[in-house]
From TrEMBL:
One of its GO terms (molecular function) is oxidoreductase activity, acting on paired donors, with incorporation or reduction of molecular oxygen. PANTHER family: 5,10-METHYLENETETRAHYDROMETHANOPTERIN REDUCTASE (PTHR43244:SF1), PTHR43244. CDD domains: Tetrahydromethanopterin_reductase. Keywords: Oxidoreductase. This is TIGR03557 family F420-dependent LLM class oxidoreductase. Gene3D superfamilies: Luciferase-like domain. Its EC number is 1.-.-.-.
Amino acid sequence: MIKLGYKLMSEEHGPKELVRNLVRAEQAGFDLAAISDHFSPWIEEQGHAPLAWSVLGACAQATSRIGLMTAVTCPIMRYHPAIIAQGAATVALLSDNRFTLGLGAGERLNEHVTGEGWPGVGERHERLSEAIDIIQGLLAGDLTNYRGAYFSLDQARLFDRPPGKLPVVVAAGGPEAARLAARKGDGLVVTEPKPELIEAFRSAGGEGPRYAEVSMCWAPTEEEARKTAHHYFRWSVTGWPVQAELPNTRGFEAATKHVTPEVVAQQVTCGPSAEMHLKSITKFIEAGYDHIILTQVGPQQAEFIAFFERELAPALRGR
């Protein structure tokens, strides 16, 4: 059965608003909520970047049923993986084991801020591989010392750990990352409806849940939705090779200077039509993804959540 998720866009909303949106999402029947973990918004118009882990603590206390996850945290530069393991264990306990840790290789936008530079993609994947080993080992309680090419542990121990296995899922934009998710993670996270990523995941032994983020913009009219999507989400059309490398909002402003609302609408379904949004969601379901995280672009979150409860959820439940 398909699980339906709600995206907490920390780039578009402040911390209190994120918690309020989550409470509404739980009341509307969403199964889970995933928060982005950024130090900076993509573009100035978004305007926010609270610490995801502080927000998660508040979310855990403000809700009682809905699952929580990061989508995704990068544990290779800005954070040491030991700190992420500690944070994940704490949120799992605060939420009564409703937490899933989503990990990925990150973007320069968020990770270069500590002044350590930004390595090439090969090193980033090597760092992520080591980080996953450390996080999984600390969460399991069977790793205290570690000496890798990039990270070390010295008598580390998590004194507060949840009972049982805390799920760790890994983001993938290509087959190599999907195979890493299979080897070292407990599930897969994607943003495109690519069946080949599931094939790579399964071919390497992956058997866990398969999460996919689907971007949309509900508004009373298609024209209004297109304007909103362009205003807040035009950065998304640059593609992952660009998104991973630009250092700040000025770079994304320059890269999207000539992007039109019509171009954004080719990637983000826009308007009040449930049929149109369901068609986009169905592409991910047919590709084999079983956890669908819906990203509503812009400020109309309460209206979107009501639309989800009224039209999208009844059409998607039971698939």
